[in-house]
């Protein structure tokens, strides 16, 4: 499962973030299109830490995730 990399401004190390859909309890796969049909769409998302290896160091964590929505 792909991780969301930390920005260079982060001072923590040895970890990354993942984003989870809390309705389906599944991790979001980046770069994949999802089609939803009709009605109101609610995306209950939660970010959580995962170990990536190397030295684990406490500090600040910053990351960016961009979502594109196309309505047809």
TrEMBL record:
Residue ranges of every copy of the Fimbrial-type adhesion domain listed in the record: 5-72
InterPro entries found in the cross-reference section: Adhesion_dom_fimbrial, Adhesion_dom_fimbrial_sf, Adhesion_dom_sf
GO BP: any one term: cell adhesion
GO cellular component terms given for this protein: pilus
Name used for this protein in its record: Fimbrial-type adhesion domain-containing protein
């Amino acid at each position: 499962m792909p991780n969301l990399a930390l920005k260079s401004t982060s001072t923590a190390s040895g970890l990354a973030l993942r984003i989870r859909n809390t309705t389906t309890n599944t991790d979001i796969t980046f770069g994949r299109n999802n089609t939803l049909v009709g009605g109101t769409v609610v995306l209950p998302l939660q970010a959580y830490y995962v170990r990536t290896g190397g030295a684990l160091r406490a500090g600040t964590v910053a990351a960016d995730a961009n979502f594109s929505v196309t309505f047809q």
